[in-house]
Amino acid sequence: MYKYIISTIAAIMLLSPVTANAAEITVGGKNFTEQLLVTEMTSQLLSAKGFKVNKREGMGSKVVRSAQENGQVDVYWEYTGTSLVTYNKVKEQLSVDETFKRVKELDMKKGLVWLSPSKANNTYALAMRSSDAKAKNMMTLSALAKSYSSGGKLKMGVNAEFPKRPDGLIGLQKAYSFKATRSNLAPMQSGLIYQALKDGQIDVGLVFATDGRIAAFGFTVLKDDKGFFPAYALAPVIRKKTLDSNPELGGILESLSSKFDDATLQRLNARVDVDKETIEAVAASFLKEKGLVN
After folding, report:
1. Which of 3, 249, 256, 276 has a C-alpha 20 to 30 A away from that of 187?
2. What residues make up the domain containing 21?
């Protein structure tokens, strides 16, 4: 009987993910649907694995990056192109694999570890209502640039960051040799751009390639025919000190990363932005669907 009790207790301890001295992990995230989703998924997954989670979602790109470099955030999901161009000031045009390799090397010097990336590439894109794109024969960014250069009055919906980023409007105008004036731009929150474009309040909108509203709202993404926008593979990035202290985090985070691709994130984003499900519900059902939590 004594041996039975001991073995039963041992089995329970092995099955239970919670430990008495669970580490506290601060999970950061940016302020749009996809980021809110992956931040919530990460928080729920780590909690299920026994970690105490401090969730800090809804931050701007530079804010969350600075917070991680300063030790205030342990892990968050970043896009390779953002780190390459915005944080590391690399101007070369690199392939998806080259981009990941470069940011992994550069950020390691800052004590940040890029874990295995997902197959999702949430690159910047510009979109129009499909009917307008066809009517104006404007299917490429070169055609859009030509319109602006010839005095076109197209109103472009952008978020606060895009006009100021080298991998955004600044670089785009240089690559395609055009200039959108202040009167051409309609700054607004990222999430509002899709509805404004659908309703005809703007002619062109900044979108993200994995957003579910592109298909749901009948938009056409203008082809980046000069290959300006860098790859934006989504990957978990963790502080080296945090990973060294909790090496099991690598495998846990990569188990989630391996489940993402463009189609999957489009579907998940649409459940929130089109079907109006909650972030928490979508995150929980996905983790269960993929067998990551019980």
Report:
1. 276
2. 2-121+232-289
Do 108 and 138 lie in a common domain? no
C-alpha span between 118 and 277 (Å, rounded)? 24
Query: Could you please report the per-residue DSSP string of 4-68?
Result: HHHHHHHHHHHH----TTPPEEEEEEESSHHHHHHHHHHHHHHHHTT-EEEEEEEE-HHHHHHHH
For the segment 264-283, what is each residue's pLDDT rounded down to a tens digit? Answer: 999 999 999 999 999 999 99
Sign of CA dihedral 279, 285, 286, 291: positive
- Give 204's strand partners: 156
One domain for residues 115 and 128: no
Amino acid at 1: M
Q: What are phi and psi of 23, to 5 degrees?
A: -70, 150
pTM of the model: 0.81
Cα separations (Å) of 186 from 63, 81, 197? Answer: 23, 24, 11
